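Encode chain A's predicted structure.
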Amino acid sequence: MTISRRLTVSATALAALALAGCGGQQSSGRDQIRAVGSSTVLPFAKLVAENFAKDNSGFKAPIVEGNGTGGGMKLFCAGVGPQHPDIEDASRRMKKAEFEDCQKNGVKDVTEIQVGIDGIAFANATDGPVMALTPVDVYKAIAANPFGKPNTAKSWKDVNPSLPDMPIMVYGPATISGTRDALKELILTKGCETDPAVKAMKDTDKDKHDKVCGDLRSDGAYADTSDNYNLIVQKLASNNKAVGIFGYSYLESNADKLKGMTMGGVAPSYASIADFSYPGARPLYIYVKKAHVGAIPGLKEYVMEWTKLWGKDGALSKAGMIVATDDVLAKSAKAASDLPVLDGADLK
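Encoded structure for chain A:
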């Protein structure tokens, strides 16, 4: 064995042992990347993992899990060491409380990288009725207590006389999902705050405001699908009276079965989400545990694989991801290369 080879092996072994020590376990480490988090990001992360495996035959293919953004954050922030994941895929930004949880558990150095854009799409079966929705329509239909009163709406016509006289049956994201958080922030809260009294409540009783605006019905009118968006597609295809909520890429990849609904007069499309004119547009992220770089084989290379695929003619775009603007991509590419530490000051 050459001197350089011995040094490389020694460095890798030391890094693995250091990582195991940080995690408080007597282990030689882990030789396979593990990513957790968003079901919206999941198909894109799997595509990156497949390309990484093709381009880097010396490393094992990454394990990519769809636990929902919230569920993934809990796993990601639980600690440093081989028993904890290396990457969190997220369909929203990390929350301040999650950042603080990371810090408390020793996950001090985290890098945030925006990898693309997606939109929260509202859809039904191709043979279902045409429905033009607004944030207030959605809020009145699925909120548990719209404007502070128990929801008694049975049909979409009860919500808005211009909508079909059709029972409210909405399949959507679970509480652990980043799509659920984005639904609350981008759609439900906008509808909720059309009432001046509720809007004012944000300054006087934030907890009550959040419940009035964000709690969803539990009487069967809204059903979460444990972050399984393919199941929502199946439900809509078999029931043309149902409405589904999921990431735009699932609508685009099932255009033969589903059609999108306008939101505030804007149809969900590549263009309207890319320029954020569609109300449900949102950035997609990955979060990298910097302490694992150099200890988990191939982690830096996997992060850099994203940068090779997220361009306008890249594999991620062809798979349905909406490409971020050139300035965002340039900033993201630099973050992937330099791995700057997120300070959390502007998180909410």
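The longest strand covers residues 110-125.
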